[in-house]
Fe-S oxidoreductase
Amino acid sequence: MIPDGTKIGLFIPCFTEQLFPETGMALAKLLRHFGLKPVNIPHQTCCGQPAFNSGYPDQVVPLAERFLRLLEPYEWIVAPSGSCVSMVKVFYGDLELSSRGRERWESVRNRIFEGTQFIYHQLGIEEIEGSYPGRVALHESCHALRELGVEEEPKKLLGSIKDLELIIPPGSQECCGFGGTFSVKFPELSSAIGLQKLSNIQSTEAQIITAVDDSCLMHLEGLIKKRGMGLRTMHVLRIMEGALGI
């Protein structure tokens, strides 16, 4: 168990900072609620995932080297994004890092976690008190599921909340169609994948779609708004925050 008062470095991804700051705040509030001291990591920038996913690993190396220098001093690093954590924890290993950068990565990759993963495993929190009425469908984000193994954590945490009916829709582990720059390069295919996901969710009569990545939710929300669907999206951490009333 991690002692009360331990400082936790907050890795706040670009999407979160620029478009979904409330998700970053939810993570900070949750960590404080559980007795920890979340601290902002000064001067953090993009982890390099967009360039890496677009096929430019050489351009990512300077970002990765700098990012690892910034993360290294923190005993624990937590982010509200399985996608960005997987970039640092897994895909930095595919880069041509310097020998010192490789040493930093070997150290950091064992101390960086997605939010629900950290709360469930490192803090040992398996139940969330409070109430959050509604029918909530879980989308299991690709990177969190396949690279980090995040599967039971959001299910257990959400499933413990009073008055919340957790729904695992058909195809919950299938891609939403976002894929970062994939959705820009192949918009028709991206939209078709997303609409199939939404069709599966609508069949369950869910009211809210949740996930551990706001990027996936942003993609689905765009399709929802264009077609006037009666659904809304909300990050898992924000639902937990709402249930606890913090």
Q: What stands out?
A: The chain has a mean pLDDT of 96. The CA atoms of residues 57 and 150 lie 25 Å apart.
